[in-house]
Amino acid sequence: QVQLVESGGGLVQPGGSLRLSCAASGSTSGTHAMAWFRQSPGKDREFVGSIRWSGGSYGNVYYADSVRGRASISRDRARSSIYLQMNNMQSEDTAVYYCAAGRPITSTLATTGGYGYWGQGTQVTVSS
Question: pLDDT category, 32, cuts 50, 70, 90?
């Protein structure tokens, strides 16, 4: 079992920045990747980005087109944590942001089915 706890959500003004954190605990040794997803009311959970946690692609980062150039995912392996830095945030970035961990293959890296563990989510609201 892997437990994930997100933090850092809140209210951001349009054009502002936010940094989310996700701390993992438990049996993380089998984790191949950790990721960020987000979900707005009435919409499906959407891939934001992921980072490989082990294997030959360790450290590789992948982003959704909707956030590429504005988002940056980093890791602290010693703390079993990942971070999401989002810049130039807009109203369409308003969502509950979720951290995920699992063993996705290449074809499932950007899908919810690729991850077996989820955090409780943290609300991010972009508004003036």
Answer: confident
